[in-house]
Amino acid sequence: MDCLTDDLPLLELLCAADEVRVPGELESSCPHENAPDAVTDTYVVDGGRLLLTLWHGRLHEVIHRTPAESVKDASRRNDRLFAHYGQGDGWTEILDNGFGRTYRRTDQQRYALWSHAMDITTFGTMGLHQVKW
Question: C-alpha distances in angstroms, 79 versus 17, 23, 34, 72, 129?
Answer without folding.
Answer: 26, 21, 29, 11, 22
